[in-house]
Amino acid sequence: MKILFIEDHPLKQAQIIRFVSEKFIDCEIETKNSYISGLKELKINHNKYDVLLLDISMPNYDISSEDSGGDWMPLAGKNILKEMYLRDISTKAIVITMHGSYDDGTKITDLDKDLQKEFSDNYIGYVYYSQINEEWKENLCQLLNTLKK
Fold it and tell me: How far is the C-alpha of 42 from the C-alpha of 108, rounded, in Å?
């Protein structure tokens, strides 16, 4: 399984990569850390990926010692799903978030319903990630296993 993982939080990214790599030994994971770098990779190489693991909130650009990452995008993941829809990119997507609600007041449960309705061809569900609760592992496993059938 080939996975594109768009996530800006280093600890979250590392824990998810470690878990997925241990659970799905045959997987390959490519990471991107911002809206622009993730979207660019997806537009160019979407046919390479079986699944997209997608954070919802992230910076516009990659953060570096020279760049602050630009504007913070509270619903960047939804924008990526919209770009996929507009470009007929068929890669399946799983949202992985550690926020129950977002800057604009949107709750993850409401966002989940919206994503299911708007992007049903791509979106297969979300995982609520927590550093203190490992329930996310089982949820992510279940969603990834639906793609193997």
Answer: 24
Query: What pTM was computed for the model?
Result: 0.90
Count Cβ atoms within 10 A of the Cβ of residue 132 and give its class: 0-12 exposed, 13-18 middle, 19 or more buried. exposed
Cα separation, 69 vs 65, in Å, equals: 10
Residue 112's closest CA among 97, 134, 132? 97
| Nearest of 95, 58, 55 to residue 74 by alpha carbon | 58
Q: Please give the Cα distance from 6 to 1 (Å, whole number).
A: 16
Match 């996929």 to its residue by tokens: 84
Instruction: Quick: pLDDT tens for 90-146.
Output: 999 999 998 766 666 678 888 899 999 999 999 999 999 988 889 999 999 999 999
Rounded to an integer, what distance in angstroms lies between the CA atom of residue 52 and that of residue 91?
Answer: 7
